[in-house]
Amino acid sequence: MTTIDLGRPESGDVIDLIIEDHRRFEALLRDLRNAESDRERVRAAFSALHVAHAEAEEKYVYPALRRKTSADAEEVDHGEEEHAEGNEALLALLECSGTDTQKFDDALEKLAELVNHHLTEEELTILNPAREDVGEATRLDLGEKFATERNRQIDDDCGNIVNVRRIVQEARAEGLLDDSEGP
Ligand SMILES: [Fe+2]
Ligand SMILES: [Fe+2]
Q1: Domain boundaries, position 23
Q2: DSSP output for 9-65
């Protein structure tokens, strides 16, 4: 269970809530790079937030935006593939027994590359169109649903390695991970 404060929003514009989480991702990645941080704790916090955020997006936000915005379905499908790749890279980081090894650094580098790419692309191709195409009432409604699911996932310890392994296996079974590219 994570002991780092991940915030606990209960309502708000869904786009703002998602972007606040993206800033938390960036801060946690910075701390993970710093050998002076308590990297075990930061890793657990990052894992919980990554899983909770992506699950809540996929459950409530992506389906609504697929219907309502000019972000075509392809962008949203692509976002789900990137979540799966991020979770696969996260699993590799969780599987490192120590945090002061080359293996940990390599796994972190890969994870950071995928997550930074996804945050940028999601903001540009999914969230920016949503600002134009989705009305305020819907954004607030989605914000509450997103926040509730995100918090519930964190309360359920969603970032534990067993759960992350299950999510990666499911994504692979759904064909969201192209294993020919390798991790
Ligand atoms: Fe996101
Ligand atoms: Fe995402």
Answers
A1: 14-178
A2: --SS-HHHHHHHHHHHHHHHHHHHH-TTS-HHHHHHHHHHHHHHHHHHIIIIIHHHH
